[in-house]
Amino acid sequence: MAKVPAAYQATRGSMLDIDRDFYARLTDPVARERIDSLVVPIREGRAWRVPAGHVVRLSTLEGPQVGDLNLWNLHNPRERFWASRTRQLQRAHVSTFDRLWSTLPYLRPMATIIDDTLANYGVDGSGMDEQGGRIHDLLGTRCDPYVNRLLTGEDFDHHCHSNLVRAVLPHGLTEFDVHDVLNVFQCTGLNDDDQYFMKACPAREGDYLELFAEIDLLCALSCCPGGTCHRNCGGRTPVTRC
User: Fold this and answer.
1) Neighbour-count burial of 29, counting CB atoms closer than 10 A to its CB (0-12 exposed, 13-18 middle, 19+ buried)
2) Measured distance CA(178)–CA(172) in Å, rounded
3) What are the pLDDT digits (tens) for 150-198?
């Protein structure tokens, strides 16, 4: 990769210059108490609320599985996760101490990643494998029935976009509120032709990503119908890979 400086640099005291000691202390299991949990079924989506100051753990309960995550301000859904700005301010694949940023005109951290069991994925714990694959992807976005129809001519509504739509309907949101995602546990990169590629999810049973809620959040997660996403992402993957 090119050894050139990042376009966006943290200056001392800015919101990119975070207090790492504070967030590291939040991972102490002795100081925490679980107050709720839910399971997102295979090929489905769920939404839930997270109060500011709480930690949410996204975990692979049974083995490799990609999850597509959306975030909204619980009290103002016009403020939502902005994947592209997060990609610019943080990186294209996020991990511990990266923040998930909201849309304009708000532009503030919605959540901060405080722990990641896959942070040392890849060659010598570098975070990147031999083919340039990295984890927790912001390069791509959710699979959806519109692209599926465009590419195959088939209609199928168990895509991450469809799952997220169904998940947020009970919370008063609609398809127009679903937005670009953080692909949790997904391994992706760019090939020599600058084209997006996906690899098999390397997560194992019990791996997790933890987020500290900076504001009151509505979260929605789709258990991707692509399963481990090692071939394609779009519903027709055998259930045995989900």
Assistant:
1) exposed
2) 12
3) 888 888 788 999 999 999 999 999 999 999 999 999 999 999 999 999 9
Residues 109, 212: Cα–Cα separation, whole Å: 10
Let me know: does 216 contact 74? Beta carbons within 8 Å.
yes
Peptide bond before residue 105 is cis, with ω within 30 degrees of 0: yes
Rounded Cα distance, 221 and 87, in Å = 19
Separation CA 18–CA 109 (nearest Å): 11
Retrieve residue 238's tokens: 């055998």
Q: What secondary structure does DSSP assign to 47-103, as a single string?
A: EEEE-TT-EEEEE-SSS---EEEEEEETTEEEEEB-HHHHHHHT-SB--TT-EEEBP
Task: Report d(CA 156, CA 187) in Å as an integer.
Answer: 24
HSE at residue 132, side-chain half, CA atoms within 13 A, is 13
Tell me the two tokens of residue 188.
Answer: 């992706």
- Residue 102, both tokens: 């909201």
Helix (H) or strand (E) holding 165: helix 160-168
Q: Are 143 and 224 in contact (CB under 8 A)?
A: yes
| Residue 46: CB atoms within 10 Å | 18
Mean pLDDT of the chain: 92
pTM more than 0.90: yes
Q: Which two tokens stand for residue 66?
A: 């990609």
